[in-house]
Structures are given as C-alpha cells and as structure tokens.
Amino acid sequence: MAEHTPVSPRQVGEAVQRLREGSPLVQSLTNIVVAQWTANVLLAAGAAPAMVDNPHEAGLFAQVAGGVLVNTGTPYDDTTAAMRAAVQGAAQTGTPWVLDPVAAGGLPWRTQVASELIGVHAPAIVRGNASEVSGLLGGLGGRGVDSAARPEEVLEQARSLARDHGTVVAVSGPVDHLTDGERLVRVANGHELMTRVTGVGCALGALMAGFAAVCEDRLVAATAATALLCVAAERAAAATRGPGSFAVALLDELALVTPDEVAEAVRLS
Length: 269
Prior knowledge:
11 helices; alpha/beta; 8-stranded mixed beta sheet; about 270 residues
C-alpha cells in the first residue's frame, strides 16, 4: 500500500506545490528532437526552462540554475563539451543535475560520454529505460531508444549504480522503479500514448531536474516528477483520441492538475 512506501502521496503533493511556488530554473542540455517540447513541459509544470547548451556558457549557467538536465539523445562534439562544462559547473556550486543516458549500451561513444560525466560529478538522478541503465554498467543496450528489458530485470543493477555513486536511479517502464540503492518506490501510473509522442521520457528527465532543485530528498524529487507527468498523462488520455491531441492535452493537464489531485491519483508501492 502507498502508506508503507518510502515516499508517500502526501510528499508527492507537497513537492508539486514547491515546484509551482519556486518555479526553478532548469538548464536543459538535451537532444535536438525534443528541445521545444521539453521547454513547454517545464513551463506547463511550473518550472522555468533555459536551453543553454554551448560550451562557452554552459558551465557558468549551471552555477546559477536550480537544476541541470544532461540528455545524450543527439550528442555532438560541441554539445558534449558543453555537458562536461555544465557538470563541472554544477559540481562547484552543488547544483543537482540529472543524467538521461539515451541509447547507452548500444552506441559506444555516447555510453563513454555518459560514464565520464558520472565520474566528473555524480548526478542527483539517473533516468532511463531498463536497457539504458544496464548499458551504463556494460550491458548491450536496447533497440535504439527502445528498451529490450523490463525495469524488474535490471533492478539489482539500478541499486548497485545508485549505491556506487550516491544517486537515485529511475528506471522507466509500464511501472516505473526508482531507487537510491536502499529504498525502492514503484509508480504505476501512466498511459500507452506516452510512448507515441517524441520526447515524453526526455521531458521527464527535465522535470526531475526541476524537482531536484526544490526537494532535498532526491528520491522524493524523482517520484514526484514521475507522478506529475504520469497522472497528467492519464487525465490527458481520457479526453483525447490519438497522439496529436494527446500531446496538446498533456501540456494542458500538467498545468491544470493540482498538487492534491496528483497526490490522490498517484499509485505508489
């Protein structure tokens, strides 16, 4: 039952309220496919996006941002240099940063980049699908950005990664599994249409960076971000017919759903 989980629905609702009140500045070094969508998701949820991803400014900006997202979806030499600078900047000021290692394990260069960034300064949260999390630990990865494994199958790897780096690992799937190496939270909300709109998972990483800016407990931050997005997706899916209208409705619901409604609807175990 939810009341016995390490993160309670009440804590989720309170975190959503803090995000709305604080409107944290989230620096997003993300892939070219999803940049505008990610910015819109952050705005709808109540955060402030900043897409500062060049090597000349990324490090300095990370020192003033509330949270930083590093997403390896479409890495280039310049943007990976910016990622390194941003992580170094975050390390200097203690800014929480989130790693989304898109397609890790399947493509060697980006896998190496992700591993190097973790070595520079441990992220507050690592968010990925099961194959990506496994890929960070030497696994083969999935089919492109699609996972070839279920979250349950990599749970022990996720726990190990979390313990080794003092981070939270959030493994996305039909039921999301989130762990800090000791505690485990499962979030059973969401809808299949989330997989039919480019960038929903990538935007979740940005939301986690926003919540990490306002939540000292990173497991609460990752859980609240997942709950907000997935509860909003359920509400959006109930009122739409397909992926196009769902994407618009998801932005609406992210803005309209109240903290109390998220706390009431989230299914934690």
